[in-house]
Structures are given as C-alpha cells and as structure tokens.
Amino acid sequence: MKRGIVAAAAVGLLLVPALPILGHVGVAPDEVTPEGSQRLAFTIGHGCDGSPTNRVTIEIPEQVTSARPQPKPGWELSVEGADGAVSSVTWQGGTLPDGQFDEFVISVAFEGEEGQSVYFPVVQGCEDGEHRWIQIPAEGEDAHELPEPAPGVLLTATEDSDAGGSADSLTIVALVLGGAGLLIGSFALMNNRR
Ligand SMILES: [Cu+2]
After folding, report:
1. Are 60 and 108 in contact (CB under 8 A)?
2. Does domain 21-158 have CATH number 2.60.40.2230?
3. What is the whole-number distance in angstroms between the Cα of residue 5 and the centre of ligand 1?
4. Which H or E run contains 187?
C-alpha cells in the first residue's frame, strides 16, 4: 500500500514538464547547439483578436550567420538583406484562421556562445491588426511576463564538450528517475526487514 503511494508520487514528479506557452509565438526546438545548421519551426498559435493571419515576418538576429526559409504553399516568400546576409524573412498572402495554428520554418546557422539566448523578433500581420512579438527580456527578466515576447532559443553545449556545465533536461529526468528508484528501493528494503 505504502509502496504504491510512493510510486505514484514518484510518477507524479515525472509528469511536470515545462509546458510551452500556448498561443503567442513559439519556437521549436528552443535549445540548440551552435554547431551546423538548425531547423527552427516558429508556431503562430492564434490571429489578432479573431482576425486571420496573412503575413509573418521573422527578423534574423546578428548571432545567425546564415538563414534559409522553407517555402509554404499558398504563401509568397521574400527575403531581405544585403551582401548575402539575411536580415528578415517574410511569408505573406496566405490565410491562417484565428482558431488554427501553423508553422513557419527556417534553417539557420549560429555564431554564439554556450548559455547565450538568441531572440527572433516576429511581426504577425492579420487582415485586421497585427501582433509585434518583439519584446526581448532584460537580464533577469522573465520572458513569460512580457505581453508580446519575441521567441528565443538557448545555445547549449555540444554533447562532447558538456563537462559538467548546465544540466539539460535529460540529466534532470535521469536524476528524478534515480531518486524515485532510491525511494522505492529503500521502502522495499524497510518492508522486507519487518
Ligand atoms: Cu498569445
């Protein structure tokens, strides 16, 4: 009986992942290594006060050394920039109803350091109105508290060079699993001794 409760509590611990903000503009993945090319999918979760989305512009930050957008059927794609450096990418002319979501994808290469957050300001145009997801949190500020935060990705260490730096989610899951195992194991031991 007791063992059942402990096991249930341990499982409960595992079921508390960080939930992405629904709505707003999300980016996946939100943690990348600064090596090679990374595919980033930006999700538009809703329109502007009920009005459908018909334009999405993603600004390319300076930590990005190359950016290639993925075309979308029904949307006209344009790229801005000079001397081969892309400064923004725009999809327009499509229609994304307020109650639906869609992804806008770019492939990027980074030049940045581990632990650095890189933000991609997004301007979402709608048939009526727009959202400017361009707010970048100051140091120590929580992006979730901004009304229109820019989506951002965290640059992390590559697997090989991760010498006890920041704990990634896999490490945390392993720690939780290990802890749960220890708990269950010690309870089993106590029960056996009686
Ligand atoms: Cu929202």
Report:
1. yes
2. yes
3. 38
4. helix 169-193
